[in-house]
Amino acid sequence: MGKTWKKGRRNKNGEPPKKRPNTQGVPGDWKEIDKSCPQFEKYYQELGIIPEDEWSSFMEHFRADLPATFRIINSRGDSQSMSEILQNKYFSKLDGITVNGKPAPLPQVLTWYPNRLAWQLNMSRAEIRYSAEYLSLHQFLVAEAEKGSVARQEAVSMIPPLLLDAQPHHNILDMCAAPGSKTLQILEAVTSTEGVMPTGVVIANDGDYKRCHMLVTQTKRFNNPAYMITNEDATRFPNLKVLGPGDKTQVLKFDRILCDVPCTGDGTLRKNYAIWGKWSQAQALGIHKLQRRILLRGMDMLKPGGRLVYSTCSLNPIENEATVLSALRDRPEFRLLPTEGCLEGLKRVEGMTNWRVMHSSGTWYNKFEEVEDRHRKAIAPTMFSGDAAVHNLQYCMRVYPHLQNTGGFFICILEKQQVEERTQVKASEIETIADLPDKKEKSTDCDSALIPLL
Questions:
Q1: Separation between Cα atoms, residue 325 and residue 385, nearest integer Å
Q2: Backbone angles phi, psi at 431, to 5 degrees
Q3: How far are the Cα atoms of 109, 115, 319, 408, 425 from residue 433, in angstroms, in the given order?
Q4: 3-class DSSP state for residue 303?
Q5: Is 37 a catalytic residue?
Q6: Among 6, 106, 271, 453, which has the minimal tally of Cβ within 10 Å of its Cβ?
Q7: Does residue 442 have a pLDDT over 70?
Q8: Backbone φ, ψ for residue 353 (5° rounding)
């Protein structure tokens, strides 16, 4: 039997318990959060990820609370009806009223989200929760979220599953799935075609046993026979064997893989206030190798012609472009796909093609050869830009808070090229050898040339 909390309980020194700090922006006698981090500002200003004339707006949005966003589940068959109810019954009541002496903000549709089924309200969740004017809307959203008709999810978090382009016949792996909001989107995509039963499978994996329980909670309202949860280390995700033609076992290769890797999360400063006080460049340097191993494992499990979406909620190129670039160097059969024409209406900037690497001591380096011996334990060769331009890193997508009042995010699409395309290139080389005049040499050379193809 657990302990019960007694009224007036005191600590070891006989003092009453301290009041919790105000982390939700609700008025009260609580400690104000210090939303400043000189190291964070100095690093990104020197790195130049934002034009100088946008810097003040960039930081101003980071210090403001994150707007509440939600979307309507699109596989229920009544999504348009739900949208009409929200607009006619709840949004219309907010028109013309005031909150704290100011006009009440109205929910704005996210125009880049398919079928206009996602909305953003420029108030924090706490402000909505404690506002009498928004009480009925809040209660409705909570009730519908429990039923599985509505999902409350950050706007930028909705992007990676949309770029995955999941279809009902696809075998899909979400490598680092918890808490499960993106997995839920994938499940929607594979079951949104009315009357069509998915013939593929969606596997949601997470290496943390407790976070797997979060996956169950998040997706239990969305019963799907083509869904399973695994608890494996993403860097060593096992090969899954399935029955193939002739009842022979074969390793399962995936059509789509979502690789939303663990990161430092400095793009979430608007909701994860603790990062303001503990941000450090050492964190990005330390997690780069883990991210790289997860990405490489995902690339190895993808089918030729398949698509992998890599994403983080970090702004640091060490966790983003550097990780992707180093993986492309190791897996030349992959290429980046352009994202410019995807999700019309979403404001974003291109990926970085040149960056420097800073040690946690503050020393900057342009290339690995310049790194001092004492810093080489923390800084790896895979962190530098080098031949970034060759691999089209501008195809990556960066989302910044001041562009559309969101959080920060990084996304890119990797495609594994068809085996046939690569084989044809090698076959053409063999044909050139076959044109040699000496038949004996031709035979010998052709035999040796065929060895790598077997």
A1: 8
A2: -65, -35
A3: 61, 55, 44, 53, 13
A4: strand
A5: no
A6: 6
A7: no
A8: -115, -5
What percent of the chain stands above pLDDT 90? 63
Rounded to 10 degrees, the C-alpha dihedral 346/352/357/363 comes to -80
Place of tokens 């105000």: 22
Cα dihedral angle (182, 188, 191, 194), rounded to 10 degrees? -170
What is the residue type of 278? K
Tens digits of per-residue pLDDT, 263-313?
999 999 999 999 999 999 999 999 999 999 999 999 999 999 999 999 999
Task: Tell me what pLDDT residue 71 has.
Answer: 95
The pLDDT of residue 233 is above 90: yes
For the residues of 322-374, what is the DSSP string, one character each?
HHHHHHHHH-TTEEEEP-TTSSTT---EEPPS---EE-TTS-EESSGGGS-GG
d(CA 176, CA 180) in angstroms, rounded, equals 9
DSSP 408-439: -EEEEEEEEPPHHHHHHHHHHHHHHHHT-S-H
pLDDT above 50 (res 88): yes
Percent of the chain with pLDDT over 70: 84
**Contact between 241 and 255 (Cβ < 8 Å):** no
Total residue count of the chain as it appears in this document: 454
Q: Which of 78, 67, 248, 59 is nearest to 148 (CA)?
A: 78
* Cα 237 to Cα 256: distance, rounded to the nearest angstrom: 15
The pair of structure tokens assigned to 189 is 């995509």
Indicate the pTM of the whole model.
0.85
Say if residues 446 and 426 touch (Cβ distance below 8 Å).
no
Our measurement of the distance from residue 94's CA atom to the centroid of its chain's CA atoms, rounded to an integer in Å, reads 33
Q: How confident is the model at residue 198 (pLDDT cuts 50, 70, 90)?
A: confident
The mean pLDDT value for 207-235 works out to 89
Give mean pLDDT, residues 377-386: 96
Exactly one of 37, 313, 396, 412 is catalytic; name it: 313
The residues with which 109 forms a beta bridge, in sequence order, are 119
Amino acid at 443: S
